What we know:
The complex is a heterodimer.
Chain A: E1 3-6, H1 11-15, H2 18-32, E2 36-39, E3 53-57, E4 60-64, H3 72-77, E5 94-97, H4 102-105, H5 123-128, H6 133-139, H7 143-153, H8 165-174, E6 181-186, H9 195-202, H10 204-218, E7 222-227, H11 232-247, E8 263-268, H12 278-285, E9 309-313, H13 314-326, H14 328-332, E10 335-336, E11 339-340, E12 342-349, E13 355-360, H15 365-372, E14 382-387, E15 394-396, H16 406-411, E16 420-425, H17 430-444, H18 450-467, H19 472-488, H20 493-497, H21 499-508
Parallel strand pairs in A: 1-2, 6-7, 6-9, 7-8, 12-16
Antiparallel strand pairs in A: 1-3, 3-4, 4-5, 10-11, 12-13, 14-15, 14-16
Chain B: H1 9-19, H2 26-37, H3 44-52, H4 56-65, E1 77-82, H5 85-88, H6 92-103, E2 116-121, E3 133-135, E4 138-140, H7 145-162
Parallel strand pairs in B: 1-2
Antiparallel strand pairs in B: 1-3, 3-4
Helix pairs in contact in B: 1-2, 1-3, 3-4
Bound molecules: flavin mononucleotide (FMN), iron/sulfur cluster and FE2/S2 (inorganic) cluster (FES).
Iron/sulfur cluster (SF4) is lined by residues 274, 292, 445-449, 452-453, 490-492, 494-495 of chain A.
Amino acid sequence: MKRRIFVPGDSAAVSVGADAVAQAVAREIAARGLDAELVRNGSRGMFWLEPLLEVETEKGRIGYGPVAAGEVSGLFDSGMLDAGPVAGRTHALCLGPTEEIAWLKQQERLTFARCGVTDPLSIADYVSHGGYRGLARALGMAGEDIVAEVAASGLRGRGGAGFPTGIKWQTVRDAAADRKYIVCNADEGDSGTYADRMIMEGDPFVLLEGMTIAGLATGATSGYIYCRSEYPHAFRMLQRAIRIAYDSGYLGANVAGSGKSFDVEARLGAGAYICGEETALLESLEGRRGQIRFKPPLPAIEGLFGRPTVVNNVISLATVPVILDRGAEFYRDFGTGRSRGTLTIQLAGNVRRGGLVETAFGLTLRDAIYGFGGGTASGRPLRAVQVGGPLGAYFPEALLDTPLDYEALAANGGILGHGGIVVFDDTVDLARQARYAMEFCAMESCGKCTPCRIGSTRGVEVIDRIIGNQERANNLQVLNDLCELLTDGSLCALGGLTPLPVQSALRHFAEDFQRS
Amino acid sequence: MSEARSWNAGRAEARIRELEKLPGALLPILQALHEEFGYIDDAAVPLVAHALNLSQAEVHGVIGFYHDFRRSPGGRHRLQVCRAEACQAMGCERLMAHVEARLGVKPGGTTDDGMFTVEPVYCLGNCALSPALMLDGRPYGRVSAEMVDSLIDDARRKAGGTE
Ligand SMILES: Cc1cc2nc3c(=O)[nH]c(=O)nc-3n(C[C@H](O)[C@H](O)[C@H](O)COP(=O)(O)O)c2cc1C
Ligand code: SF4
Ligand code: FES
């Protein structure tokens, strides 16, 4: 049997040497004259094991990791290509069957079912792993029924705001216009998040399939993916996947032989966090400064080039195919309360086993950070976690039993955002983190509202005075007033939510503001 | 490697013509010019404005809005060091201080020999392997000061070898 050897091409895996490992594997295959093929898959999201090399055997896929290029030859010597690990001579790097690794086995991978498993640019691989089944079903349904199916699944936008996807689609469907658009928000600016990147690099067809289904549901025939420029590899993968989808008849004038048309084009951002906000993103796509638009009109009514537009996050769109394939109920049955389906958590920062965890909503922060993450990478005590990106709250250890769902986090003064969890050990200084939150707001403000544009710079100065113990009590009051002004006087969540990290730091870590 | 090529109006016009018919063509055009020359020359602004029927002020406004666009040539190599929260949790500020000391530049600056431009960046999506950086579009994770040194030395050695 021809062996397939997998070495991820995911940029995080590459960042720790996967390209060198892949080259070594290719050399060994050639030098030893083996009947084997090298596949550059996406990442399984177990980043502490990257580069993770896998071999397809009769006993399933066997994992080895983290592998250094210099160890590859030894892996071949150990009989890695034989029918699975042989007792007594398994290599020290052998992890056994990848799917049996507890970290992966305890997950419920629906959106990420194929990521890290298949060759991201092979349509044959995609189809043989369940790809395009959702589209096939959607092609036999009325648009109205596709919208109803997505609504019934309970899917809420994974970009941060948690808005019900079905309702957004219905609005676009109901709007009469000569053209409508599907825009995929791939700006993924939040620190601590990389789920969108993993999908674009590891399973790009699922995103294209989701966008096509969104088009069928709403009557849109044209789609754009707005990908941030910090992701050059993801952008290249998207461009290649789009070309392949056109060549295979899954995009273009006759989608899968249905006579229906859907086009997709990928565009690059230019380094502006605010362009992740949907109206700023649309401005940017139209070729202007990424400034926030007043709402209403909603983008669903007047979006790109003034036409009704669905703006959805990568993960929202990439989840649509499995909903259409397995049915709304199947998806709905995962989760809790008003948070249905699965959540893609991204463990980041000072965490021992960082990576992508997809499970039903309801896991607690503690389960995520200690269960999956294994605590801090430094081995020092955990002191704070920031959930939901740069506009998310800092939580102390005492709040780690909070479940990861939209409502529970809100009830504790936080947000879920895009599902990023950044772990800090006891060397963190929360006054510094609060200062950074203000600094980031000042740097990325689109400039439309005075509190955000000016108030954030003032916030940095005030925190500096608090840290420097100049009229501390007074300045703490000024800082709180400033936060209120930002909360009430901002047009969008950049200004409006910057107080979350600042005030949560003040509330839970007051001692850090009293150090000198 | 981002070799800065000198400004050339003919080449600029060719790139503009390739893209001017796209809906929302301004960003793709500016990105193409940036890729071609390593920065956006002031002389490009009237060309772009004319092609898209915009005022020069509008084009200037857009260029100024986005962090990616440089108005003058940068170094041969672009070193982007992540300074966002996940990397902060793993000591990226110490790493940035090391880069600054080693290259003798502040974030945003270019070394005297024109070899490196150092840019702060706010998340590279590699937050499970922090601290992270990118050199000419190549990602590096779990970066130590020693790794930074060897990346810099390699780039300098290669430049020395070809000159
Ligand atoms: C400052 C700011 C930044 C945002 N950045 C992103 C982003 O990078 N990606 C994203 O999908 N949504 C982002 N959003 C949310 C979008 O405005 C919008 O809600 C989302 O794209 C809708 O898609 P969804 O319903 O599928 O989540 C951001 C919002 C704000 C206020
Ligand atoms: S809050 Fe800030 S980023 Fe948002 S619209 Fe106002 S100025 Fe722009
Ligand atoms: S915070 Fe540095 S890579 Fe995401």
